[in-house]
Amino acid sequence: MSDNDDVPFNRNFPLNPGIVEEVRPGVRRVLCDNPSPFTFTGTVSYVVGKGNVAIIDPGPDNEAHAAALLDAVRGETVSHILVTHTHRDHSPNTARVKQATGATVYAEGPHRASRPRFESERHNPESGADRDFAPDVRIAHGDVIEGAGWRLEAVATPGHTANHLAFAWPERKFNFVGDHVMGWSTSIVAPPDGSMIDYMDSLDRLAAREEDLYFSGHGPEIPDGPRFVRFLIRHRKAREASILHRLAKGEADIPTMVRAIYIGIDPRLTTAAGYSVLAHLEDLVARGVVATDGDPVITGTYKMANA
């Protein structure tokens, strides 16, 4: 999004789909050919370890990508499949890879919303959720998954989705952060699937950890991860300030706020921007800073609580 000049994004990611790249010893990545305004050049799957390996995020329902991943681990044993979250660009290929390898699937749990849906909200089947996914083993914050020569710790990072996990490799100071932190763009937080309150708490949790090299679900690796996270926190606080600045001028609906805040946005991202504004408003209403009639929903009108 064009207004993100305050965050040091890196959109230089020359990896081609289907190619296996060893980005660090013990970490390989394979790009799926599913580019879009939301996925950048596509979803990145990771292979952790050598000989006995784990695959993180097998990607979308894409046979060619599954074949490329299986090719990458030819002659090796895949013991674990780890899934950061249940969006359709990350988890559906799990079934193919599990069938081919017999690996055990680990994740926080099936897809769920961050909060109950309000009566006035229509269910959007195009939210991108993979509602068919269920892990073999459900894991929670602090759980450790290990294999030959690698040890990953689950880090609860809800916000982008309620069931989002990062997988830290503390000994190597690596963190596989899924879509919670991306080097090329901000993450989408779209209620009720996502929650800005949870998202900000999860950023704080990552910033407080020791891991400093982040491997993301899309785009290049992020060096000095906690510093980058602090940029994201500042950016979100600036976005909140922009919303409050607009509401200080008077009552407004979300499309009006999007036009005021996201100057020159790619039109394909306008809906997503609206949900991002809603996520901030939901937080502001919960804190009593902003008021709305009824539930804070995408079609609502908002004003300063003291207005």
TrEMBL record:
One of its GO terms (molecular function) is hydrolase activity. The keyword Repeat does not apply. Keywords: Hydrolase. It holds the Pfam family Lactamase_B. SMART domains: Lactamase_B. It comes from the Bacteria. Residues 116-134 have a biased composition (Basic and acidic residues). Gene3D superfamilies: Ribonuclease Z/Hydroxyacylglutathione hydrolase-like, Winged helix-like DNA-binding domain superfamily/Winged helix DNA-binding domain. InterPro entries: LACTB2_WH, Metallo-B-lactamas, RibonucZ/Hydroxyglut_hydro, Sec-metab_biosynth-thioest, WH-like_DNA-bd_sf. Residues 104-134 are annotated as: Disordered. Residues 42-218 form the Metallo-beta-lactamase domain. The keyword Hydrolase applies. This is MBL fold metallo-hydrolase. The lineage of its organism: Bacteria, Pseudomonadati, Pseudomonadota, Alphaproteobacteria, Hyphomicrobiales.
